TrEMBL record:
Note accompanying the cofactor annotation: Binds 1 potassium ion per subunit.
Keywords, sorted A to Z: ATP-binding, Isomerase, Lyase, Metal-binding, Multifunctional enzyme, NAD, NADP, Nucleotide-binding, Potassium
Binding-site positions, K(+): 61, 128, 170
Protein name in the entry: Bifunctional NAD(P)H-hydrate repair enzyme
Organism: Georgenia deserti
Domain YjeF N-terminal: 10-224
Subunit-structure text: Homotetramer.
Role noted for this protein: Bifunctional enzyme that catalyzes the epimerization of the S- and R-forms of NAD(P)HX and the dehydration of the S-form of NAD(P)HX at the expense of ADP, which is converted to AMP. This allows the repair of both epimers of NAD(P)HX, a damaged form of NAD(P)H that is a result of enzymatic or heat-dependent hydration.
Reactions mediated catalytically: (6S)-NADPHX + ADP = AMP + phosphate + NADPH + H(+); (6R)-NADPHX = (6S)-NADPHX; (6R)-NADHX = (6S)-NADHX; (6S)-NADHX + ADP = AMP + phosphate + NADH + H(+)
Gene3D superfamilies named in the record: 3.40.1190.20, YjeF N-terminal domain (3.40.50.10260)
Coiled coil: none
Residues that bind AMP: 409-413, 438
Cofactors: K(+); Mg(2+)
Lineage: Bacteria, Bacillati, Actinomycetota, Actinomycetes, Micrococcales
Length: 520
C-alpha cells in the first residue's frame, strides 16, 4: 500500500526527532542528490559537468534544495540557485556558497520571471525547492509568474530539462490534491518521510511524475494514512478464495437490479462483471427485456427473488423512469432492513437526492457529473468542473452528507467514506472511458460486497472501513482488466505503447486475466 500523511502529521512526527538533533534535512538532501544523479545517468548524461538550476523558496524546502545543490556541486555539477526569497535557509545557503554554487538574487530583477527563465535555459536539471508542506494556498507572486513561465517554456526547450520536485511540486494542495495556481510539472518527486495526499489524489497527482519516498525514520507506519493507494499485494489479501467448506451461499449471493427498457445492456454488463470477479450466485430482478438479455448471456443467473448478501442497484436506469425508481427504492429499503451492503449507481443515486438517510452500508458510484447533481440536490451547489478540480473534497462531502461510501469514478478513482483514509486508484487506461464500463465496475464491486456481505452486515465499527477498501479493490481490478484488454502491461511501463480500443465487454472478459496477475 502506498500511504500518504498530511502536512500536520508529518510535522508532528518530525518534531521530536528534530529536537533530538536527528539530521533530517541532511538525509533529505542526500536522497535528492542520489536521485538527480540517477536520473541524469538514466538519460545518458554524466553527473560531472551537468548543469543544475535550484529554484529556492524561503523555507526548509528551499533548504533541502540548497544542501542537495552543495552535494551536486562537489560532484562536479555546475549548480546555480535562483533565490526566490529574501530569506533563504541560512545553513543551506552557506553550504551552497561553500561548495561553489552560484547564487542569483532574482527578486532584485525588474522581470523576475525573465531572470529565472534566463538561468533555466542553461540547465539540464531544474530542482523545484520553492515550497513544500509549509505551503499556504497556491504560489504567490512573483513565484507564481516565474513558475507559470517555466512550465510554459519547458516544452519548447530543444532538450527538455529534467524537473525534480523537492517533497511536492511547489504550489499543489499538499493535503487535498487540488491545483490552486501555477505548478511546474515534475518528472520525479522526491518526497520526505512519507508520501503526501496531494501526490496520490487527482488532479495534483498528475503533476508529480514518479514519486520516490525517502525514509527519514519518522515512524509514520503506525499512524493511519490520510490517503492511500492499494497495490496488487493488498488486493491479494482481500480477494476471497473459496475453501472446501464453501458452497454457493457462503460465497455470497448478489442481487442485481439494473437495466431498463431504455438501457437493457447495463444489466448484462453488470452481471458479467460480477460473475467474472467471482461469487456464489446472482439474482437478477428487472423488466422483461433486460431479463431476457441476462438469461441469454448468462444462463447461470437466477431471476427469482430471495435472500442476498449484497445489492447492485441502478446501472442502466434513469431517474425519469418512475416505475423503475420505485423498484430501486424498495430494494434499497430491503437492503437497509437486512443490513446488507448496496452499491448504488446511475438512477439509484437519484434516490439520495431526497433527504434520505442511508441506514445500511452503501457504496455510491457516481462520476463527477452525477456527484455534482447529488451534492447540488442536497444543498451544496457545485458544478461538474468544480467536482473534478477537487474530487477528494467533494467525495468526502458526499460521504458525510449521505452516510455512505463514495467511489468517484475518473481517470483516478477516489474513494471516500465519512471517516477513514481516502483511496486514490490510478490503475486504468483512458481507453476505459467507454460506454458501459461503469456497469462492469458496479458488477465487480457487487461481487466483492456480496463475498463480504455477512461480515459487513455483522461488522460494527471495526469493519466500518471495509466497504471503502472493497470499493478501492474493485477500482483496481477494473482498471487492471482494462489495461490488459487494451494490450497494455498490468503495471504502467515506459515502453508499453498506446494500447488498442476496448469495449466494456472486453473489460469484463479480461477480469480473469487481471485476477491471474494478483499474487495469491
Ligand atoms: N522540518 C524539517 O526539518 C524537515 C523538512 N523537510 C523539508 O521542509 C519542508 C517544509 O519546510 P517549511 O516548514 O519551512 O515550509 P516550506 O514548504 O519550505 O514553505 C515555507 C516557505 O514558503 C513560503 N510560502 C508559504 N506559502 C506560500 C505561498 N502560497 N506562496 C509563496 N510562498 C509561500 C513561506 O513564506 P511566508 O508565507 O512565511 O512569507 C516560507 O518561506 C518540507 O516540505 C521538506 O521539503 C525535510 O528537509 C525533512 C526535514
Ligand atoms: N480518462 C480515463 N482514464 C481511465 N479511466 C477512465 C477515464 N474516464 C473514465 N474512466 C473510467 O471509466 C468508467 C466509466 O464509468 P461511467 O462513467 O459510469 O460510464 P458508463 O455509465 O457508460 O458505464 C469508470 O470506471 C471510470 O473510472
Ligand atoms: K517543492
Amino acid at each position: 500500500m502506498i500511504r500518504a500523511h498530511t502536512a500536520a502529521t508529518v510535522r508532528e512526527a518530525e518534531e521530536p526527532l528534530l529536537a533530538a538533533g536527528e539530521p533530517l534535512m541532511a538525509r533529505a538532501a542526500c536522497a535528492l542528490t542520489t536521485e538527480v544523479a540517477r536520473e541524469l545517468r538514466a538519460r545518458g548524461n554524466r553527473v560531472s559537468g551537468s548543469s543544475v538550476l535550484l529554484l529556492v523558496g524561503g523555507g526548509n524546502n528551499g533548504g533541502d534544495a540548497l544542501h542537495a545543490g552543495a552535494h551536486l556541486a562537489r560532484r562536479g555539477c555546475q549548480v546555480r540557485a535562483a533565490l526566490l526569497t529574501d530569506r533563504p535557509h541560512p545553513a543551506g545557503l552557506s553550504a551552497a556558497r561553500g561548495a561553489g554554487v552560484r547564487l542569483h538574487h532574482v527578486l532584485q530583477a525588474e522581470d523576475v520571471a525573465g531572470a529565472v527563465l534566463d538561468l533555466a535555459g542553461r540547465a539540464d536539471v531544474w530542482v523545484d525547492g520553492l515550497l513544500g508542506i509549509g505551503a499556504r494556498g497556491g504560489l504567490r507572486e512573483p513565484l507564481a509568474g516565474a513558475v507559470a513561465a517555466l512550465a510554459e517554456e519547458r516544452a519548447a526547450w530543444p532538450v527538455e530539462p529534467l524537473v525534480l520536485a523537492v517533497d511536492v511540486p511547489s504550489g499543489i494542495g499538499v493535503d487535498d490534491g487540488t491545483i490552486p495556481g501555477p505548478v511546474l510539472p515534475a518528472d520525479v518527486t522526491v518526497t520526505m518521510g512519507t508520501a503526501k495526499p496531494g501526490l496520490l489524489l487527482p488532479p495534483a497527482a498528475g503533476l508529480a511524475g514518479r514519486v520516490e519516498v525517502v525514509d527519514l525514520g519518522l515512524g509514520l507506519d503506525a499512524l493511519a494514512p490520510a490517503a492511500c493507494t492499494l497495490t496488487a499485494t493488498d488486493v491479494a489479501d482481500l480477494l476471497p478464495v473459496p475453501g472446501p467448506e464453501d458452497h454457493k451461499y457462503t460465497r455470497g449471493v448478489l442481487g442485481i437490479a439494473a437495466g431498463s427498457h431504455a438501457y437493457p445492456g447495463a444489466a448484462a454488463l453488470t452481471a458479467t462483471g460480477a460473475l467474472r470477479t467471482g461469487l456464489g450466485m446472482i439474482r437478477y430482478l428487472g423488466p422483461e427485456v433486460p431479463t431476457g438479455l441476462v438469461r441469454t448471456r448468462h444462463p447461470e443467473v437466477v431471476t427469482v427473488p430471495g435472500r442476498v448478501q449484497a445489492w447492485v442497484l441502478g446501472p442502466g436506469t434513469a431517474p425519469d423512469d418512475a416505475a423503475r425508481m420505485e423498484e430501486l427504492a424498495e430494494h434499497l429499503g430491503e437492503a437497509a432492513r437486512t443490513g446488507v451492503p448496496a452499491a448504488l449507481d446511475a438512477g439509484a443515486l437519484a434516490l439520495l437526492h431526497e433527504e434520505t438517510e442511508l441506514t445500511g452500508p452503501a457504496v455510491l458510484t457516481p462520476h463527477a457529473g452525477e456527484l455534482a447533481q447529488l451534492l447540488t440536490a442536497r444543498g451544496e451547489a457545485v458544478t461538474r468542473e468544480e467536482v473534478s478540480a477537487a474530487p477528494a473534497r467533494h467525495a468526502r462531502l458526499a460521504a458525510e452528507i449521505t452516510g455512505g461510501t463514495v467511489l468517484l469514478k475518473g481517470a483516478t478513482t477516489v474513494v471516500a467514506a465519512p471517516h477513514g483514509p481516502l483511496y486514490a486508484q490510478h490503475d486504468a487506461t483512458p481507453w476505459l472511458a467507454t460506454a458501459g464500463s461503469g456497469d462492469v465496475l458496479a458488477g465487480v464491486l457487487g461481487a466483492l460486497l456480496a463475498s463480504y456481505g455477512d461480515v459487513i452486515a455483522d461488522g460494527g465499527d471495526v469493519l466500518a472501513g471495509l466497504p471503502a477498501t472493497l470499493a478501492a479493490t474493485a477500482a483496481f481490478l477494473h482498471g487492471r482488466a482494462a489495461r490488459l484488454a487494451a494490450g497494455l502491461p498490468a503495471e504502467p511501463a515506459p515502453t508499453a505503447g498506446a494500447g488498442v480500443p476496448i469495449t466494456a465487454t472486453d473489460v469484463a472478459d479480461a477480469l480473469p486475466a487481471a485476477l491471474r496477475t494478483i499474487p495469491r
